[in-house]
Amino acid sequence: MFEKVCEILADKFDADASTMTMETKVKEDLNADSLDVVELMMDLEENFGVAISDEEAAEMSTIGDIVKYIEDHKE
């Protein structure tokens, strides 16, 4: 799961997935803005079949937060 999330982030933000950790911060480390985060959540929903509300997305700051949310809510 972690690797797949990193691949999606790397593609979206033109970053190196191999340097990402569970503590990598999406906004600060990957320079995502609010629109990027909305688009990212749509990509994650499409790839993992997990619905993520704007409020829930706002609470996720690190890759670890995203992975945990997906694992907890995956069908």
Number of strands: 0
* Beta-strand residue fraction: under 5%
Give the H and E element order: HHHHH
Q: What's the alpha carbon Rg, rounded to whole Å?
A: 11 Å
Given helix and strand content, the structural type is: mainly alpha
* Backbone shape: globular
Nearest-integer average pLDDT? 93
Largest sheet geometry: none
Helix content: 55-70%
| End-to-end C-alpha gap | 14 Å
Number of helical segments with 4 or more residues = 5
Low-confidence stretches: none
What does this structure look like?
- The protein has 75 residues and is mainly alpha-helical.
- 65% of the residues lie in helices and 0% in strands.
- The protein contains five helices and no strands.
- The chain has helices at residues 2-13, 26-30, 34-48, 54-59, 63-73.
- The longest helix is centred in the middle third of the chain and has 15 residues, at 34-48.
- The mean pLDDT is 93.
Relevant terms:
75 residues, 5 helices, 65% helix
